[in-house]
Amino acid sequence: MTIKLIAIGKTDDKELVKLIENYQKRLSHYIQFEFEIIPDLKKAKNLSESQQKQKEGDLILGKLNPSDVLILLDENGKQFDSVAFSQYLQKHMNSGIKQLVFVIGGPYGFSEDVYSRANGKLSLSKMTFSHQMIRLFAIEQLYRAFTILRNEPYHHR
Q1: Feature table: binding site
Q2: What is the pLDDT of residues 119-157, one digit of tens each?
Q3: Annotated binding site for S-adenosyl-L-methionine
Q4: Domain at 2-32+71-156, CATH class
Q5: DSSP 26
Q6: pLDDT per residue over 71-102, tens digit each?
Q7: Domain ranges, ordered by start, for the chain
């Protein structure tokens, strides 16, 4: 199985980029992982909120294969602790799917088309985080989940 994380817009903070790359490298020891950035929309300031969500949604949907399981990182999604999240990943791995795709939307969230295509929604916290920070948190939690599944000490350091 491959796990893919898709996000809208590049990460501006160089320190965050280093941390994200660090956890990507760690995660690659456990599973095939891809992190794909969809560039920010050009002239987004000229678009309404709904137009921006629709255009970003079209770009997201264009990155998916029909067989992909799509999980949206969404404030109204299901919340897990780290152990339960590792079990959630294990269930997906056991199901025989080829690719599990997590998506971090743009500043206004997702279009209705993306919500319709989604197989689930996941929330990392009831708090609101920047779209830049969520990338790091999502990749770190994926890494943590695999260390839990392998019974490695990272989770309890």
Answers
A1: 73, 105, 124-129
A2: 999 999 999 888 889 999 999 999 999 999 999 999 776
A3: 73, 105, 124-129
A4: alpha beta
A5: H
A6: 999 999 999 999 999 999 999 999 999 999 99
A7: 2-32+71-156
